[in-house]
């Protein structure tokens, strides 16, 4: 293009742009900026609420009703073992076995100092229980109503596959019934007889264990796992079993 | 009954077993050991595993499961080896086919005998498996398919004896397919346990089938040579050729197993996968290192592989040494696979106090006796078979 030709072209400066085009460009600019700005603001907001998102089902999405579960307020446990004693007594657990036990965690606080936490463990009554999948004779199953993982001792052939499948070591072979035995949230010994809580919960003097219906928004377990500023976790989530025993730090 | 047996038992021809005192003595000893094993098993059922077995809450499966796996791996392998000849038509494999089919029955029955004492209420199985059938359970499929497998193999054997080859081939194929399905399900019993990192994944079913083929080759060489040596029979050229072919197939399978094992170990160490790493290190440098390096690697893989390669599968005495080493090594492989897979406790890596890094297990006398009983029962079956079926000689070898 020669300089003479250039002189003949019309100017493209802002003065000659139609206002519609200007507005459109401005709008586009605002949208792009807004998107980035909005994203940045989101990333700056607190992620506290995200803690439980992976392990606690979304409100209203419970496979069972009552959806029995237990919340363990780990920090309060003093390892008095009254829960274990109550369980043994209520469910006739032999000396060589246990349905629930307490493990001890230790964390260094630097120097000579340590922090000890006691971690009660029991059957997690998983939503996707590996023990139930592997049982060849359906001697163990997930109760359709309550979600409790139940045993029928008379059907158990004693192959012990459920014991190897359980990620929580929650099962043992009970010689007296010639069947695998496990925690049933005291269904047989208490819940089926009208009581509303388990023996271990009742026996706990420190209010560590909270039992209830997760599907009921008024229940204490619901309130605990949906409380703000609360860290909630489950044990061995990587196995995909979707456990129903929640541990919280408050 | 007599007529039925007469149709199956060869009346003449074949090889005559020496009915000497040695034979009677061997039968007597094996029978005694079998009875002892059954007695130990029955006692453990009455007294309870809690008091008689070394198994525990943390390690619920012991040497009996390992022995069961060993027997059914061998059985499936023998079925695979037998089918190479008379199902798929590789003639070199024909001379060993009848003995292989017979031994596949003997080994699976021995396996059932052992597991009957590991399962604490085996009498609840027939009803429970039917009214409580759980189609998502690999152990249900394994049991059911192995039942069908035993049935097919027995019919196949009868058809072979009656010289009805078309029917035998059909049932042989059915046996092979159910055997492979059953066996891969046994692999899946371990492989589909998400909480057991050492077992979890598709490796187990694949590994089980490959090692079955290897075990079958090793077992048929082992038993055939014993039968010929003990009875002073002379091996026909066809049988020698067959041994060579089987040995070469076995060597190929060993090469695959060596390859598999290398990568299993490398993948278990690289990046320290939690749970798996601890198990692999137990095998490589820990308390099971002797089992792994001497039992699995040397006896189970390197020695038999090297011997077969050096003699090119032709020296019968050398093949026997290879097969013997292989049988022992394969048993150790099964033992390690079952036991070591359970040693990492459920709550590992959580910083727990007074909590074992690794669990432990040691078989008790009761368990050893039951396993020995199973082995003896298999031997008894084998010796009887050689005598009754006149060396399992195929008509065209």
Keywords:
heterodimer, A: 250 residues, alpha+beta, Alpha-Beta Plaits, 2 domains, four-stranded mixed beta sheet, two-stranded antiparallel sheet, 7 helices, 10 strands, 25% helix, 18% strand, B: 397 residues, mainly alpha, Formate dehydrogenase/DMSO reductase fold, globular
Can you describe what's shown?
The complex is a heterodimer of chains A (250) and B (397). Chain A folds into two domains: 30 residues; 198 residues, Alpha-Beta Plaits (2-Layer Sandwich). Chain A is 25% helix and 18% strand. In chain A, 36% of the residues are buried. With 397 residues, chain B is mostly helical. Chain B is built from 14 helices and one strand, in the order αααααααααααααβα. In chain B, α2 packs parallel to α5. Chain B is globular and about 70 Å long. The mean pLDDT of chain B is 93. At the A-B interface, β2, β3, α4 and α5 of A face α6, α7 and β1 of B. β2 of chain A pairs antiparallel with β1 of chain B, so a sheet runs across the interface.
Q: Tell me which CATH architecture of the largest domain in chain A applies here.
A: 2-Layer Sandwich
Main sheet specs of chain B:
none
- Total helical elements of chain A: 7
Span from first to last CA of chain B? 30 Å
CATH topology name of the largest domain in chain A: Alpha-Beta Plaits
| Proportion in β-strands of chain A | 15-25%
As a percent range, the share of strand residues of chain B is under 5%
Oligomer: heterodimer
Number of strands of chain A: 10
Helix fraction of chain A, binned, reads: 25-40%
CATH topology of chain B: Formate dehydrogenase/DMSO reductase fold
Helix/strand/pairing class of chain B, anyone? mainly alpha
Task: Write the element-wise H/E pattern of chain B from the N-terminal end onward.
Answer: HHHHHHHHHHHHHEH
N-to-C CA distance of chain A = 77 Å
Query: What's the CATH first level of chain B?
Result: Mainly Alpha
Main sheet properties of chain A: 4 strands, mixed
Order of strands across the main sheet of chain A? 8-1-10-9
Low-pLDDT segments, ≥5 res of chain A: 47-52
């Amino acid at each position: 293009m020669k300089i003479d030709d250039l002189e003949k072209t019309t100017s493209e400066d802002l003065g000659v742009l139609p206002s519609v085009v200007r507005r459109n460009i401005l709008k586009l600019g605002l949208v792009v900026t807004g998107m980035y700005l909005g994203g940045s603001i989101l990333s700056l907001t607190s992620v506290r609420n995200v803690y439980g998102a992976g392990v606690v089902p979304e409100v209203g999405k419970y496979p069972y009703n009552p959806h029995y579960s237990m919340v363990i307020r780990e920090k309060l446990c003093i390892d008095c073992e009254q829960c274990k004693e109550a369980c043994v007594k209520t469910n006739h657990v032999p000396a060589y076995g246990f349905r629930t036990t307490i493990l001890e965690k230790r964390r260094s606080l630097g120097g000579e100092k340590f922090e000890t936490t006691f971690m009660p463990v029991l059957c997690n009554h998983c939503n996707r229980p590996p023990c139930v999948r592997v049982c060849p004779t359906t001697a163990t199953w997930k109760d359709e109503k309550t979600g409790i993982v139940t045993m029928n001792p008379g059907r158990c052939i004693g192959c012990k596959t459920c014991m190897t499948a359980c990620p929580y070591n929650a099962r043992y072979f009970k010689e007296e019934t010639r069947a695998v035995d496990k925690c049933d949230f005291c269904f047989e010994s208490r819940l089926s007889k009208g009581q509303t809580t388990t023996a271990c919960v009742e026996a706990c003097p420190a209010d560590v264990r909270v039992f209830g219906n997760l599907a009921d928004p008024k229940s204490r377990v619901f309130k605990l796992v949906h409380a703000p500023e609360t860290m909630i976790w489950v044990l061995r989530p990587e196995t995909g079993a979707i456990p129903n025993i929640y541990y919280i730090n408050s | 009954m007599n007529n039925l047996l007469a149709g199956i038992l060869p009346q003449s021809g074949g090889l005559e077993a020496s009915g000497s005192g040695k034979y009677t003595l061997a039968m007597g000893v094996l029978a005694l050991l079998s009875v002892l094993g059954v007695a130990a098993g029955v006692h453990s059922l009455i007294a309870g595993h809690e008091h008689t077995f070394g198994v525990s809450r943390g390690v619920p499966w012991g040497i009996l499961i390992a022995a069961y796996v060993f027997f059914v791996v061998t059985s499936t392998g023998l079925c695979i080896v037998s089918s190479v000849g008379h199902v798929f038509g590789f003639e070199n494999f024909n001379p060993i086919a009848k003995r292989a089919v017979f031994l596949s029955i003997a080994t699976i029955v021995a396996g059932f005998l052992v597991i009957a004492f590991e399962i604490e209420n085996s009498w609840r199985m027939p009803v429970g498996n039917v009214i409580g059938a759980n189609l998502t359970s690999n152990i249900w499929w394994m049991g059911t398919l192995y039942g069908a497998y035993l049935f097919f193999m027995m019919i196949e054997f009868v058809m072979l004896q009656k010289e009805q080859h078309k029917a035998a081939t059909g049932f042989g194929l059915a046996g092979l397919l159910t055997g492979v399905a059953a066996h891969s399900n046994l692999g899946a019993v371990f492989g589909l346990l998400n909480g057991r990192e050492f077992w979890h994944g598709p490796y187990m079913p694949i590994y089980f089938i490959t090692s079955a083929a290897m075990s079958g080759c090793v077992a048929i060489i082992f038993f055939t040579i014993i039968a010929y040596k003990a009875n002073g029979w002379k091996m026909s050229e066809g049988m020698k050729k067959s041994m060579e072919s089987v040995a070469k197939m076995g060597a190929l399978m060993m090469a695959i197993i060596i390859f598999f094992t290398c990568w299993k170990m490398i993948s278990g160490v690289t990046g320290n996968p939690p749970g798996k790493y601890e198990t692999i290190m137990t095998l490589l440098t820990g308390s099971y290192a002797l089992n792994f390096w001497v039992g699995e690697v040397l006896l189970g893989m390197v020695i038999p592989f090297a011997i077969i390669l050096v003699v090119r599968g032709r020296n019968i005495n050398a093949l026997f040494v290879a097969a013997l080493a292989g049988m022992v090594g394969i048993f150790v492989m099964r033992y390690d696979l079952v036991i070591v897979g359970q040693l990492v406790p459920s709550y590992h890596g959580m910083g727990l106090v007074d909590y074992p890094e690794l669990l432990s297990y040691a078989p008790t006398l009761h368990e050893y006796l039951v396993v020995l009983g199973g082995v003896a029962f298999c031997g008894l079956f084998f010796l009887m078979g050689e005598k009754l079926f006149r060396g399992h000689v195929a008509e065209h070898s």
